[in-house]
Design goal:
There is one protein chain. The chain is mainly α and about 300 residues long. It has a domain of about 100 residues: Serine Threonine Protein Phosphatase 5, Tetratricopeptide repeat, CATH 1.25.40.10. It contains 17 helices and no strands. The longest helix is centred in the first third of the chain and has 20 residues.
Length: about 300
C-alpha cells in the first residue's frame, strides 16, 4: 500500500472485485489477518478510509506484530489528516521492523505535512538507505528540500527520481517548479512540457507552465495553460487567481475580476485574490475595490503593500 496515492476509476472497479473476494476469504477463515489487511488496502484504493481503518484494526488485533498492517493504517490516518495517530502507527511499525523503507518513507511524508522538514528528510534518508531504488522517496525528499528553499538539493533528488522512473510526470513537474523558483525558466518549461506529454491530464503541470509563461511575459500562453488546468480541475482556486493575474497584466480587468470572484468562492481567505481583485476593480472605477484591499490587509498584513 503506497502512501497517499492517486486514485482512479480503474482502481475502484478492481477494488470492488477484490473486496468481494476478500469477503469470501474472511467468511471461510475469519481469523486470517492477511485477508483483513488486503481488504483494507482495497478500501484504501476506493478512498473509503474509515472502512480501511476498521479492517487494519482487525488485522492488527489478529496479528499484533504486523508492521505492514500498522504502516498501512498509518497511511489511512494520514489520508484523513489525523497525523498524530499516523505517526504513532509508523513509530510502532518501525519498532517492529526497523528495516521497513515503507514505514520510514511514510513517516517522513507525515512529518513533511506537519511542517517538520528536517525530520522528514532524516526519515527519507533512512528509507533511501534501505531502498536506494525508491523513486518516490527521492521525490518526497526533493519536496522537503524544496520546502526548505534548498533548490539545488531538491533538483538533485528530483533528477534521481526521474532517472529511476523516467515516466514520473510528477517528478518532472516538481523539478520544473524548482527551476522556475531559481529563475531558470527555459529549463522549467522543458520539464513541464515533458510532464504534460507524459500526463496530458495533469492540471498541476499546466498551471505551473502557465505561471512560467506569465513570468516570461507571455500572458496569452499563460491564459491558455490556466484554462486547460481549470478544465481538468475546476476547483483549483489558485489557478483562477493565476489566470486573473494574467488578465490583469493584459488590462482585461473585467475578466480578471470574474476569475478573482471564482478564486474567492473556492478559497474565501485568499488575501492575494482580494488584493488583486481590489486593484482590478479600481481600474474599472468600481468603488468596492477599496473594501477588497482592506479585507486583504486584514487577512494578511503583508498583502497589498
Amino acid at each position: 500500500m503506497s502512501a497517499l496515492g492517486i486514485e482512479s476509476n480503474r482502481f475502484i472497479v478492481i477494488s470492488e472485485r477484490a473486496i468481494a473476494d476478500f469477503n469470501e476469504a474472511i467468511r471461510l477463515d475469519p481469523k486470517g489477518a492477511l485477508a483483513f489487511r488486503n481488504r483494507g488496502d482495497a478500501y484504501m484504493n476506493k478512498g473509503d478510509y474509515d472502512q480501511a481503518i476498521a479492517d487494519y484494526n482487525e488485522a492488527i488485533r489478529l496479528d499484533p506484530t504486523s508492521a505492514l498492517a500498522l504502516s498501512d493504517r498509518g497511511v489511512a490516518f494520514a489520508s484523513k489528516g489525523t497525523y498524530d495517530r499516523a505517526l504513532a502507527d509508523f513509530n510502532e511499525a518501525i519498532r517492529l521492523d526497523s528495516k521497513s523503507a515503507h514505514a520510514f518513507r511514510n513517516r517522513g511524508v507525515v512529518y513533511a505535512y506537519k511542517g517538520d522538514n528536517n525530520r522528514a528528510i532524516a526519515d527519507f534518508n533512512e528509507a533511501i538507505r534501505l531502498d536506494p531504488k525508491g523513486a518516490l522517496t527521492f521525490r518526497n525528499r526533493g519536496d522537503a528540500y524544496m520546502n526548505k528553499g534548498d533548490y539545488d538539493r531538491a533538483i538533485a533528488d528530483y533528477s534521481e527520481a526521474i532517472r529511476l522512473d523516467p515516466k514520473s510526470a510528477l517528478a518532472l513537474s516538481d523539478r520544473g517548479v524548482v527551476y522556475a523558483s531559481k529563475g531558470t525558466y527555459d529549463r522549467a518549461l522543458a520539464d513541464f512540457n515533458e510532464a504534460i506529454r507524459l500526463e496530458p491530464k495533469s492540471a498541476h503541470a499546466f498551471r505551473n507552465r502557465g505561471v512560467v509563461y506569465a513570468y516570461k511575459g507571455d500572458n496569452d500562453r499563460a491564459i491558455a495553460d490556466f484554462s486547460a488546468a481549470i478544465r481538468l480541475d475546476p476547483k483549483g482556486a489558485l489557478t483562477f487567481k493565476n489566470r486573473g493575474d494574467a488578465y490583469m497584466n493584459k488590462g482585461d480587468y473585467d475578466r480578471a475580476v470574474a476569475d478573482y470572484n471564482e478564486a474567492l468562492r473556492l478559497d474565501p481567505n485568499n488575501a492575494l485574490a482580494f488584493c488583486n481583485r481590489g486593484r482590478a476593480k479600481r481600474n474599472i472605477n468600481d468603488v468596492s475595490g477599496s473594501a477588497d484591499i482592506a479585507k486583504a490587509r486584514r487577512l494578511d498584513a503583508s498583502a497589498c503593500r
